[in-house]
Design brief:
coiled coil, transmembrane, membrane, ion transport
């Protein structure tokens, strides 16, 4: 994002050290303060300091304006939520300067919100009434069917009773008292009933509780509704049953009503009169039609209003965000004693001074201010922020370094070397030019479509992969290169540059060691000879090659880290770090592992059979013994004794002198001094950024000595462990090669051997899936993490402190980007 924040204003520069920064002070007239901050937000080259850190947000000058724009932002968020629910996408327009008056926009947003809230409330009421009418119609239909069915059954029973009364009396004929009760209407019990709907999942508990609460003195009839209905209260679709509960007495009715409320059962009135039922169904159907038309009209009007808002939403949103950020920045400025000026302080790159001054002049002219803004550079001992002006290619590599720690101001930046070394170390572990081509195609897809994808919302993993598309591109290119060296294409070797230099003595030599091969042609010109693949000596040969290569690369990269510590010490004029850190570290590392690297190269060039393990072990255990057949060059024993002595001397060299010299410097600096002259900016920054100066008021010698002891022990032990850590290059390269070979031979070739088209198709599909899933995803991630560790721990800890802080300038572009997140 650095290139976006800087507005593409960076001149050609060196990425090795961060941009030269300056602390600037701006004295801005009140009348042009808003326009000045707005212009600086467009420019994006000043990181303002908060000069009101001791004040709460409510005590600051522009708290009321921030509250106003916060309320406007809330209304815009409300509009966005409503548009998302309605499926309306805001119209994206090119970012042009809007001429909208902020006060008019505030009034307009308030009116639109009130209108939209009223529409939503009316629509909610109409929708609830509509859902209630739909449920009422269902109750009328289902309960009407039950009552008509009951009426038919009662009529048939009455006729049966009358026919029995006209005939002869039998044992089943009602007694005299029963007849009197049947004939006397006043003695019959009058039953009441309640109708409504209850959720289907609650029907059984509902029925059981009513039965228990009334001691069984009820009759309940349930009828299932075929399709789910929208509940008027919750607004969600629910499966429901229509119920009719017959009861006797007011107490039973009260209990049933309470149970209905507890179960969320909606009750609706119903009449026994069949004619009235037909009229009610007709009336409810008519009201449903009217309600539906009213809802559709309301939704159309609401959709039209949201579409009108959507046409200008992006413009309004950008304006409100920018204005809010302007007043947030103005709140960081301190008010002058005269209350006519605002004083601002902030960091800016030195190269941006001219552009900042131009922006200040434009602001004074646009705001018709009689007095311009005063721009001046302040001298300070404060550590400036770190700013690297990156582009879309280098930003991903810089992010890899920044994830470990932001470089201290003008410290040597590992990101420059990471652009090459990171993909190269990855490729050593991932070397296969077939897999490299697959990675290359994936990276090219992201790069070709980057304009389209950069404006879209992507998933977390996809967005992370898209951000590192150029890292993947470099990893793919280096993987193709190392794959050609290893001569592996999905584990299959090819004679790419020339025929193999070896031939078989007889037919059985492929199962023998290399003793069965004779050299008949010149040495294979580039990479591993294809004849090694598949032979019995393939694994010992490639193991030896890759292990020694890992040590050479590791020692070279660690030496590079130590050399960079020299450039840091030279840049910050720290001679102690040169004499008592860089030189002894370089001697110690190369006396042991630099010497091992030299032995490896000598052994390769001379074809010697010397055992390097034996040489290195007995260099420590028996340094005076004769080497015998393990001697690689004349006077090797003498060289080893000298190197061992240098390694032993370099440890106290690192440990002892530096703390005592720092103590002497501190005494000399403060002896007899009450007042010291002010330093220049460069000198003060150098003193501040020198981490070993310990320029505090109190010098704790014990603390400095312990720190130096820890640093020395860490380096001495780290020299061994870091060198061993680089053997992961060999281990992961071997694992990747063997996995690729297993998948090819045990899946693809095995399926091919069956001479069955179905088995072959299945085998190809399985091979593709395991290649993509294991080798192109899991192995890529594994090699990436191991390369990351080698850079962070083994390389960067030799010189990189990473205790700086990033330069975050005030920029409208970054404000809008963060709000979108």
């Amino acid at each position: 994002m650095a290139e976006a924040r800087a507005g593409g204003c960076c001149p050609p520069m060196d990425l090795f050290r961060s941009e030269a920064m300056q602390l600037v002070q701006l004295i801005i007239p009140i009348e042009s303060a808003h326009q000045t901050v707005s212009n600086l937000g467009d420019l994006g080259l000043i990181q303002f300091k908060d000069l009101n850190a001791d004040k709460s947000p409510f005590q600051r000058t522009y708290a009321a304006q921030i509250k106003k724009f916060g309320e406007m932002a809330r209304k815009l968020r409300f509009f966005r939520e409503q548009m998302v629910k309605a499926g309306i996408t805001p119209l994206t327009k090119p970012g042009a300067k809007s001429d909208i008056d902020v006060d008019d926009l505030e009034v307009k947003l308030g009116e639109l919100e009130a209108e939209l809230v009223e529409m939503n409330a009316n629509n909610e009421k109409l929708q609830r009434s509509y859902n209630e009418l739909v449920e009422y119609k269902l109750v009328l239909n289902k309960a009407g069917e039950f009552f008509s069915s009951a009426l038919r059954n009662a009529t048939a029973l009455q006729k049966e009773l009358e026919s029995q009364q006209t005939g002869e009396e039998s044992l089943d004929t009602p007694l005299l008292l029963d007849r009197e009760i049947l004939n006397d209407q006043s003695k019959q019990v009058k039953l009441g009933f309640i109708t409504g709907l209850v959720p289907k999942e609650k029907s059984m508990p509902f029925e059981r509780i009513i039965f228990r609460a009334t001691r069984g003195n009820v009759y309940i009839k349930l009828a299932a509704v075929e399709e789910p209905v929208v509940d008027p209260v919750s607004g969600e679709k629910v499966e429901k049953n229509v119920f009719v509960v017959f009861y006797s007495g007011e107490k039973a009715k009260t209990k049933i009503l309470k149970i209905c409320e507890a179960f969320g059962a909606n009750r609706y009135p119903f009449t026994e009169d069949f004619g009235k039922q037909i009229l009610m169904i007709s009336e409810v159907s008519g009201r449903i039609s009217e309600m539906k038309a009213a809802i559709d009209a309301g939704l159309f009007h609401r959709s039209h209003l949201l579409q009108t808002i959507g046409d200008q939403f992006v413009q309004w949103n950008t304006l409100v965000r920018n204005e809010k950020s302007i007043y947030h920045t103005l709140n960081m400025l301190s008010l002058d004693v005269t209350k006519k000026c605002l004083v601002a302080e902030g960091w800016s790159p030195v190269f941006g001074s001219k552009q900042i001054q131009d922006a200040l002049q434009r602001a004074a002219f646009d705001s018709n201010s009689q007095v311009g803004t005063i721009f001046q550079v302040l001298h300070t001992t404060e550590l400036p922020p770190t700013y690297f002006c990156t582009n879309k290619f280098t930003s991903a590599f810089q992010d890899i370094v920044d994830a470990y720690g932001v470089a201290k101001y003008q410290e040597a930046n590992p990101g420059v070397f990471t652009i090459v070394t990171f993909p190269f170390l990855f490729a050593i572990m991932f070397g296969d030019w077939g897999h490299g081509i697959c990675l290359l195609l994936a990276a090219l897809i992201f790069i070709i479509r980057e304009k389209k994808l950069s404006g879209q919302k992507l998933g977390d993993i996809t967005e992370m992969t898209f951000g590192g598309r150029y890292v993947i591109l470099m990893m793919a290119l280096f993987s193709i290169y190392t794959g050609v060296i290893y001569n592996e294409f999905f584990s299959v070797p090819f004679e790419l540059f020339a025929p193999s230099a070896y031939a078989c003595r007889d037919l059985s030599c492929r199962d023998a060691t290399t003793a069965g091969l004779i050299k008949v042609l010149p040495t294979y010109p580039f990479g591993v000879d294809p004849v090694w693949h598949g032979s019995r000596s393939e694994l010992p040969f490639l193991n030896s090659l890759k292990m020694k290569m890992s040590i050479l690369i590791g020692v070279a990269q660690m030496n590079l880290g130590i050399i960079l510590s020299y450039f840091n010490a030279m840049y910050f004029k720290n001679s102690l770090n040169i004499w008592f850190q860089f030189i002894p570290q370089l001697i110690f590392l190369n006396s042991l592992f630099g010497y091992l690297s030299l032995l490896i190269i000598v052994k390769w060039t001379t074809g010697s059979q010397a055992d390097l393990y034996h040489v290195m072990i007995y260099m420590f255990l028996s340094p005076t013994d004769e080497l015998g057949e393990n001697q690689l060059f004349p006077r090797q024993k003498t060289v080893q004794l000298v190197l061992l002595l240098l390694a032993l001397v370099s440890v106290p060299w690192m440990l002892l002198p530096k703390p005592f010299l720092l103590k002497m410097q501190h005494k000399a600096r403060h002896q007899g001094e009450s007042y010291t002259p002010l330093q220049s900016t460069e000198e003060s920054l150098q003193v501040e950024t020198n981490h070993d100066s310990h320029g505090h008021e109190e010098f704790e010698f014990s603390e400095v000595f312990v720190h130096q002891m820890i640093h020395t022990i860490e380096f001495v032990l780290g020299a061994v462990s870091n060198t061993a850590s680089y053997l992961r290059l060999w281990a992961l390269s071997l694992a990747h090669s063997e996995l690729s070979s297993v998948f090819f031979e045990k899946v693809l070739l095995l399926a091919w051997g069956y001479n069955n088209i179905l088995i072959l198709v299945v085998g190809v599909i399985v091979f593709i899936f395991v290649t993509v899933g294991v080798l192109l995803v899991m192995e890529t991630l594994s090699a990436f993490l191991h390369a990351l560790r080698l850079h962070w721990v083994e390389f960067q800890n030799k010189f990189y402190e990473g205790d700086g802080y990033k330069f975050y300038p005030f920029s409208f572009g970054s404000v809008n980007y963060e709000d979108d997140e």
